[in-house]
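STRUCTURE:
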């Protein structure tokens, strides 16, 4: 009788809907975030680095060429997790760089406020397993760790960065490297390498619940390619000698490949940044050293891609791949900080600190355990090619990064879109893909900040060419560097030493390299966009930075305070010993 019943209802018109609804399980979602990865650092965007795993995602998804994020890690991560502007979610800058004049304000703490709800929380409420394996940097007190912000299982490094080979800090910003698993401090295995470890743990978490049939959300924020730049020798070896021509030729080659792939417009030009050194002015030994540094950088990108491939292979073997959506992006543009760009006494202190912490800069061992590499602004200019500026700055090189959405339900496969997208769009996109409603400013009976981003699902389905109208504006500010986007246009102001502290106007669709300022040619548009920026700043409580503010100097001050606090007992003992010594000498006389 039961079989007969199902045969009969199968002929009813609504039975098709019932059967397909049962089959269409919510998709798994994998959100992969690279750290400090430049616009053209992957093959789909014009890199010479073959990234087959990321290329596979591009071939099976939609490649965004006009996606923007904050130019620094923590603000990006805060908006990524919440869909709320960084000035409203508590993270307008990394906490290590916030000056005291701003830090007294609640929305300038540099840690994720409790007036926002993470997508992990909403997905978990909807029946998803939620996992995080990677860098967090949104707070490290117990109530701010990801284990208390919606993630069911976590292994996380809570700082701006850390060593990729062992558990130790990478700068004097920290007394130690802060690693946690499910809210508790942990040690790392002896064979640890960050990119491998994060994928190992992601697979472990996913596999632990594979039998219950629930979908999962796996957030994997890599440390690659944040400083210190480090990679297993087998990956570095593949790129030895490939960068002997230097950064200027590499920047030009990447521009040509990006043009040929339609990642940028065919007429795109680029500026030569004032911070880029003349390759030919270097000695042969200096060229050799710089070339190997870039080989390590390429190796680190390659290693990340390889381990992403391991996750893809696992999902295929376990039958989960076809029901998974992948999102790949970078948190900001390439890091351009020089190794020693501060005053002489600070440089000496940093060298002593590195030596005390087991770091070296020897050519023979570059990238391996104990090695320390800063890429510097010259090769960073190639990593962001053909864009201008880099991490921390509001130029396109700091804000425009790779962004790919791939997998189940994506109709626009193997295609490129030049539609504008912003980091706050990722949270609502993930929720709509999962079939989970936004909270609309209220969660469990309390008022929270509403999401301001827009779902990109219509783009992914080929139902729209853009989700933003020509009139809508998106404002941005970080450390006194600011921008506002509207249609094809952008106004931008960058402070020194990279910028001139003046506002400029660019058409970033036909001129992504920001080579032609249109402020004088289009005064009405410039004025209107300036008014829109001032409104954005007022509506979002954007505070001015002190006149002499410098982000890197502020971080150095933070480092000094951290080290003084960490070693205060030793300093006090030293003072007491010296005082006693002088007192004894005085009495002997």
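SEQUENCE:
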């Amino acid at each position: 009788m039961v079989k007969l019943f199902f045969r009969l209802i199968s002929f009813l018109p609504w039975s098709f809907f019932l059967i397909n609804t049962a089959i269409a399980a919510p998709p798994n979602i994998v959100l992969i975030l690279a750290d400090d990865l430049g616009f053209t650092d992957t093959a789909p965007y014009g890199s010479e680095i073959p990234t087959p795993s990321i290329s596979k995602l591009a071939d099976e998804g939609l490649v965004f060429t006009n996606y923007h994020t904050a130019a620094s890690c923590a603000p990006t991560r805060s908006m990524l997790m919440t869909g709320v502007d960084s000035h409203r979610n508590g993270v307008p800058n990394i906490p290590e760089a916030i000056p005291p004049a701003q830090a007294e304000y609640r929305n300038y703490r540099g840690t994720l406020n409790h007036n926002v709800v993470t997508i992990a929380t909403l997905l978990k409420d909807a029946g998803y397993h939620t996992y995080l394996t990677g860098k967090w940097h949104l707070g490290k007190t117990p109530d701010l760790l990801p284990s208390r912000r919606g993630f069911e299982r976590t292994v996380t490094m809570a700082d701006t960065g850390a060593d990729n080979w062992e558990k130790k800090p990478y700068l004097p910003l920290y007394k130690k490297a802060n690693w946690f698993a499910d809210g508790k401090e942990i040690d790392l295995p002896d064979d640890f390498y960050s990119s491998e470890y994060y994928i190992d743990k992601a697979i472990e978490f996913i596999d632990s619940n594979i039998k219950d049939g629930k979908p999962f959300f796996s957030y994997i924020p890599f440390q690659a390619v944040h400083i210190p730049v480090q990679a297993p020798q087998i990956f570095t070896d593949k790129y030895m000698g490939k960068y002997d021509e230097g950064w200027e030729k590499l920047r030009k080659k990447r521009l040509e490949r990006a043009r040929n792939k339609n990642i940028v417009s065919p007429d795109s030009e680029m500026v030569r940044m004032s911070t880029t050194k003349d390759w030919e002015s270097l000695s042969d030994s200096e060229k050799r050293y710089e070339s190997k540094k870039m080989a390590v950088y390429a190796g680190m990108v390659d290693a990340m891609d390889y381990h992403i491939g391991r996750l893809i292979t696992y999902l295929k073997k376990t039958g989960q791949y076809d029901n998974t959506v992948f999102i790949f992006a970078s948190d900001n543009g390439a890091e351009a900080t020089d190794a020693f760009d501060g005053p002489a006494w600070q440089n000496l202190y940093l060298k002593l600190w590195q030596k005390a912490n087991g770091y070296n800069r020897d050519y023979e061992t570059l990238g391996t355990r104990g090695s320390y590499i800063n890429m510097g602004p010259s090769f960073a200019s190639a990593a962001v090619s053909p864009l201008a500026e880099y991490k921390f700055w509001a130029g396109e090189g700091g804000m425009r990064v790779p962004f790919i959405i791939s997998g189940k339900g994506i109709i626009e496969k193997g295609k490129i879109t030049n539609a504008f997208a912003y980091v706050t769009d990722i949270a609502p996109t993930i929720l709509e893909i999962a079939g989970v409603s936004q909270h609309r400013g209220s969660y469990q009976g309390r008022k929270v900040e509403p999401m301001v981003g827009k779902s990109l699902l219509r783009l992914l389905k080929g139902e729209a060419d853009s989700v933003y109208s020509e009139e809508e504006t998106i404002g941005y500010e970080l450390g006194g560097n600011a921008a506002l986007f509207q249609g094809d246009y952008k106004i931008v102001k960058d402070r020194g030493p990279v910028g001139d502290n003046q506002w400029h106007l660019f058409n970033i669709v036909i001129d992504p390299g920001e080579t032609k300022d249109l402020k004088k040619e289009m005064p009405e548009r410039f004025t209107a966009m300036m008014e829109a920026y001032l409104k954005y700043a007022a509506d979002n409580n954007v505070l001015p930075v002190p006149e002499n503010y410098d982000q890197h100097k502020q971080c150095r001050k933070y480092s000094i305070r951290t080290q003084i606090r960490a070693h205060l007992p030793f300093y006090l003992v030293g003072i007491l010993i010296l005082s006693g010594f002088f007192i004894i000498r005085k009495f002997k006389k």
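REMARK: The CA atoms of residues 92 and 567 lie 30 Å apart.
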